[in-house]
Write the structure tokens for this entry.
Amino acid sequence: MEPSLARVDYLQVGVTAQKTMRLLPASGKKATQKVVVGDQDGVVTCFGIKKGEAVPVFKTLPGQKISRLELGGAPNTPQEKIFVAIGSEVRGFTKRGKQFLSFETNLTESIKAMYISGADLFLCASYIYNHYCDCKDQHYFLSGDKINDVLCLPVDKVNCITPVLACQDRVLRVLQGSDLLYEVEVPGPPTVLALSNGNGGDSGEEIVYGTSDGKLGVMQITGTKAIPRWEIGNEKKRGGVLCIDSFDILGDGVKELLVGRDDGMIEIYNFESADDPVLRLDYALSESIASIQGGCVGKDGYDEILAATYSGWLTGLTTEPVHREGGSGEELKLSQEMQSKISSLRNELEQLQMKVLQEREKYQQSSQSSTAVSSVPAFSVNDKFTLNKDDASYSLILEVQTAIDNVLVQSDVPLDLLDVDKNSAVVSFSSCDSEPNSNFLLATYRCQANTTRLELKVRSIEGQYGTLQAYVTPRIQPKTCQVHQYQIKPLSLHQRTHSIDQDRPMNTLMLKGQFSFAEIHSWVVFCLPEVPDKTPAGECITFYFQNTFLGTQLESTYRKGEGYFKSDNISTISILKDVLSKEATKRKINLNISYDVNEESVRHTLKLIHPKLEYQQLLAKKVHLIDALRELQVHEGNVDFLLPKYRSILEEADQLLEEYKRQPAHLERLYGMITDLFIDKFKFKGTNVKTKVPLLLEILDGCDQDGLIAFFDAA
């Protein structure tokens, strides 16, 4: 039987970052636990629950943002010392709130990730890992890409210190001292790490990872290599994983995997068989889940899942029954406890309303006085702009700590806005003049009341680069707005990958000139997504990419004074040639550009595009027939006389229309790519074939692959 989980909202603190809420160990079995949480106002709050009310244990003074909160203590003792990362400093508090540690690290950046094991402290800034023992510097490592999380395998089980870094380039890096022991590829950029079962499993070597594109997996980290145990894809297209915990919420004696996602989903995975976990329960909140813990919080003997959301709400999903039966057994009555809670909430609400009125009057008076000073209210925006591999589109997620009024989206490059099922906002488009203002997109999303999170989807065109801007206006007075900018890169649909197929026919672009390693790296960062801003260590670097729309690939290898770019798509090489030469000209650097074009690569790219073209043309034809077929159905009443293919169009009409609506301008994009391929092929030969484009479009309408290849060869 599925357990029933009831939602309880306990308390709201300030905006919280990822992994900043923990439950202190219970004093006895099934006793309630204290909650400790750190927010971006710099306040550490510790509280317990008595009779449904939050009772504070301690609260620190405001300060810098708290980026991480962990529990620690001596090995084999209750882990009840509280450690928080604030800027580049680590502070320690007892469970009563007394500060016993203030450790100023030697990091020049703010701490992004932290893990504590006994006397060992593991800290990470953006690219730097540091290991301290008793606050003394032990080891240091410079990562090739941004570090998102860190943990260490349990020392009592594996008998050595084995730190693991989750890095943005889809890699887990396993360290030994200050050296890289080995690295292991994972299916997406890992955002969070946790010990499997809370203790690393029987061997102590198993870790769970969650990725920014919503995948989960377990990896066994041995002394010589990593062994994948299981992996779960993101079939339901849910948000990225932000937090993970292990706790027996179902009461079956086996710990379940608790997962919190950035779209507000809480998931409970059960290990019914010894192999892969099965999703047993899920629950949707309206904002991202920054931290998740399993324990006993609200009432003795009742387990629950506690989640801390982005805006600072601490919400429990408890196994405690919400309603209790009255003495008569016939009708449900509110308990005395519930009635007193409702009464206290009403009083609190009245006090808040009075306070708001007083403050509003005070503001009105001060704003009209001769010495008035305009004050802009500050608000936090949590944003994420990522490329989705599945449909080659960009997701823009905007989350605000208060309700959003509207979001204006503006772009100086052509973009397609795609439909998002979860989006309930009303969108309206404004006509824009692309010539004087470089405005290609101007759209306003008006949000419904209490919407704090908005998700948009856009698709870019490779070769056209610029800036997408989002003007976010929340429902606060006085009206204020924040502008957030996102770069649309020249090769915006390319995604980093670990390896490529070397057997494909490749075109090569070679650059030589008086440029430094840092300069050519900055050009590659400008052209391609998912490349770390920091110049890589060493003298030479190679990155591999895959085009998420077409499946073509790119290999870029460069060092001081030279760069080599190989791709099976000649249009990719053409875009790189144009952009890199423009960037070099800006810096007054002379480039010696040479290229090697493989004729076979054009046929190969056409063969990759053709199945997509055929499918989209067929879909468009079916959609155009739907209205006529429906009219026939109304007039005739019976459609048995129709051919089976037309009957199937009527049966699948809703799905076909939904798919067509989800992918606007898909066919036009494919036509554009084939046209660009045609122009680029002859551009490298020094021939202008733009006059032959109308003839090419006629052949495309016919959708004949052999005829298309023959046209490319003969032109």
